[in-house]
Design goal:
single chain, mainly alpha, Pantoate--beta-alanine Ligase, Chain: A,domain 2, 43% helix, elongated
Length: 104
């Protein structure tokens, strides 16, 4: 009886692990952060965050907007591939967030 219970518990564990691996990919609506557009958007925001830090290291001040960094720190103002808008959030240091994907 004890051996049977252990076998059943083992089977339940294997089934639970299999479901845990399969179910995240079965959803009809993937998370916006895990979509290719979401990953690109997050990469854009991280690039801007790095540019903000580089700007601060070079000029000992934070930029007032993204356009201030174009040329020196950024080639161009990034665009969210999903159509979201990047919003400049003032602070020390400033950050940006996307209207679709949130913050990095």
């Amino acid at each position: 009886m004890r051996k049977t219970m252990l076998v059943l518990m083992g089977l339940a564990l294997v089934a639970a692990l299999a479901l845990a691996l399969v179910l995240p990919g079965c959803g009809s609506s993937a998370s916006s952060r895990t979509s290719p557009q979401g990953r690109t958007c997050l990469a854009n925001m991280r690039t801007v965050d790095s540019a903000i830090e580089s700007y601060n290291a070079l000029k000992d001040a934070y930029p007032k907007n993204m356009q201030q960094m174009v040329g020196e720190m950024l080639k161009k103002v990034p665009v969210c591939p999903a159509g979201g808008k990047y919003i400049w959030v003032d602070g020390q240091p400033p950050t940006i967030k996307c209207t679709i994907h949130g913050t990095p």
